Amino acid sequence: MSSLLPFMPALWPWDKVKLGPVKVSPMGLGTWAWGNTLLWGYNPSMDNELQQLFNFATSKGVNFFDTADSYGTGKLNGRSEILLGKFIREFQQGTQKDIVIATKFAAYPWRVTPWQMVQACKGSLRRLQLEQLGIGQLHWSAANYAPFQEQALWSGLAEIYKEGLVKAVGVSNYGPKQLVKIHKYLEKQGVPLSSAQVQFSLLSMGTDQMEVKSVCDDLGIKVIAYSPLGLGMLTGKYQASSTIFPQGPRGLLFSRVLPGITPLLDALEEIARKRKKTMSQVAINWCICKGTIPIPGVKTLDQARENLGALGWRLSSDEIAQIEAAAANSPQKMIQNIFQTK
Fold first, then answer.
1. For residue range 149-199, what is the model confidence (pLDDT) as tens digits?
2. 176 vs 114: CA distance, rounded Å
3. Which residue in 114, 187, 198, 214 has its CB near the most CB atoms, within 10 A?
4. Which of 42, 71, 161, 226 is labelled catalytic?
5. What gap in Å lies between CA 95 and CA 89, rounded to an integer?
6. What confidence category does residue 208 fall into, taking pLDDT thresholds of 50, 70 and 90?
């Protein structure tokens, strides 16, 4: 007998879901790769295609883009925000004001006062050439290594909201306990916590992930799912038997994780074949079915087109149960982000 889930309509890119005071497409796009040479092999010659994929996704109804002030390596630091700002200004179709940018402010060790957080937000606004952000987020918590810094970061987050620099505030890489603490702190300041961005995928499915989701549901916080494709391991492009992996740190991670997720990859492939979808589309759709807003990273037009194929349909309850069982039976999981707190 199939497990029963409440009926939910399929979501298209032009449908919008509520994220605090803003309305965003049911799937956004992540821009970590834009400017990152170490992990993603970025070079400026890619900028034209990045603009093409931005224009394509936005013209199809995607209005939600996630970035960070630390995205971009070395001299390219901030490159992701700069490119997004340029693409928004030059976008010729639709209404630019409907585009929602969520950026993240790094908890650098020198950001120890609320004023420095405000300045970080203003720096992002300058690079994006925007007057107001959709969502301003703390990129990670300092609780693991500098707990004395935490309240200054929280106070700064409250201040950017009160000054009208952002429409909403959120956090990233916060575990359930720390999430409850910052929610309580901001609530006393009269500031609603609208979003929590966490590593959320079939590859990272476990008690920690689901506890964060449960806390968010209880507190009215929307979960933004980053790395919904497990840095590319759930796309089907790579197998445990592969001899070619991505270069750099991702390749080392793939060689360690892929041999232990064969049951999950097999289940994704089976459902994708029956649905006439790709494994990436199935994995992203699962995130949507779990009530999150996935933000798969993109750096090519083909990736943007493929990701959009995750919308407009929904996995059945039986299919969800099948791939979740396969994930549970896979001995390897995604390595937890080192900045994730309890």
1. 999 999 999 999 999 999 999 999 999 999 999 999 999 999 999 999 999
2. 24
3. 198
4. 71
5. 11
6. confident
